[in-house]
Specification:
Four Helix Bundle (Hemerythrin (Met), subunit A), Rossmann fold, 2 domains, four-stranded mixed beta sheet, globular
């Protein structure tokens, strides 16, 4: 399995996803600033993955520090949690990972800096392992929606590059392949950063899973010709009513799937559910630099250099367009407001991220 995140004794190693698929370049991250830059520049991306890397980043903020007082530690902790949280606002896993560590440390009464520093690394490793296990659960539970010959349309990248494990939506597909199902995948290019064309195709080709790349604008024609049996995407944040924020273009696919009577599923861990947000319009949406649209890879111009651009990184799909939400515990079906509440209540630790 591809490992996009590895802890190497005293630093973090990631695959620089801005270089794929033409180059496989590894980055070594030694500081919290390195981690912030990697998240913000999308050298690593995917909601679960940035939650994992942020947890390691919090440890790196203290790794080189000498003995400091309890007051100094908690001041630095709050500063670095806020700093890392600001890297990308939409994916809830980022704040989830950081807040879960912070809440655990806030309960310390007998402060010893070396002990606390070691705990930071242990908590990061536990969050990493936790995401691996969640991905496995999602992948297995997703098999109930696939047949032995499913034709699947997916959007953006939701595999091992985007998580600490096998993946979410792509994890469901990879698990089906491992089980001997003859699945076929259609991957959207996922403009403007091309995560589908660059990353999803690369992952699937490496795993020898049949994949066909399509332009984002070709999805309607593909669905109208009944060449797709199911659409599966990931999620960066899920509101209490089932509204789901995901890569820009997901909402369009959900509308198309509904019109053509094709099931549309979300695959995401319970930690992606934000029970504090009641509906989709309250989900914060990240807006990115105009040059992502004006240029390919922000380097090669494809339009007039000063044209106005509107570049939201995510959109929100309303719950009435979603057939089901595949989680590590089960597949959640409508009515979402009730069933998500039940999922949160019965899986409190998995949702809130308490480290035990």
């Amino acid at each position: 399995m591809i490992k996009s995140i590895e802890w190497k004794e005293d630093h973090l190693r990631i695959i620089d996803q801005t270089k794929l698929p033409l180059e496989t370049v590894y980055l070594d991250l030694f500081t919290v600033e390195d981690v912030f830059k990697a998240i913000q520049k999308m050298q690593i991306r995917g909601a679960p993955a940035i939650g994992v890397i942020a947890a390691y980043g919090l440890y790196l903020a203290f790794r080189a520090a000498k003995d400091i007082s309890s007051a100094q530690f908690f001041e630095m902790l709050n500063e670095n949690v806020d700093y890392l949280n600001s890297a990308r606002p939409t994916a809830v896993n980022l704040s989830w990972a950081l807040q879960s560590i912070k809440s655990k440390l806030n309960g310390i009464t007998d402060f010893n800096f070396d002990t606390v520093k070691n705990r930071l690394l242990q908590y990061a490793e536990k969050i990493h392992q936790d995401d691996y296990e969640r991905c496995e659960g999602i992948a297995i539970n997703g098999q109930e929606i696939l047949t032995d010959h499913s034709r699947i349309l997916t959007h953006c990248n939701t595999g091992a590059l985007a998580t600490g494990g096998i993946g979410t939506a792509l994890g469901v597909i990879c698990k089906a392949h491992q089980m001997g199902k003859k699945v076929e995948v259609f991957a959207t290019e996922s403009r403007p950063v091309l995560q589908g064309a660059r990353l999803t195709v690369w992952e699937l080709e490496n795993l020898q899973i049949p994949v066909t790349l399509i332009c984002d604008s070709a999805a309607a024609s593909l669905l109208s010709q009944k060449k797709v049996d199911v659409v599966i995407t990931g999620a960066d944040r899920i509101a209490a009513d089932g509204s789901t924020a995901n890569k820009i273009g997901t909402y369009s696919l959900a509308i198309l799937a509904k019109y053509h009577d094709i099931p549309f599923y979300i695959a995401a861990p319970l930690s992606t559910i934000d029970g504090d947000i009641s509906e989709g319009k309250a989900i914060p949406i990240e807006y990115r630099d105009a040059n992502e649209i004006r240029k390919i890879f922000s380097k090669h111009p494809i339009t007039l250099p000063e044209v106005n651009c509107w570049n939201p990184a995510f959109d929100v799909t309303p719950p009435e367009l979603i057939t089901g939400i595949i989680t590590e515990e089960n597949v959640i079906y409508p009515p979402y407001e009730l069933n998500i509440k039940n999922a949160i209540t019965s899986n409190y630790i998995k949702v809130r991220g308490d480290l035990v």
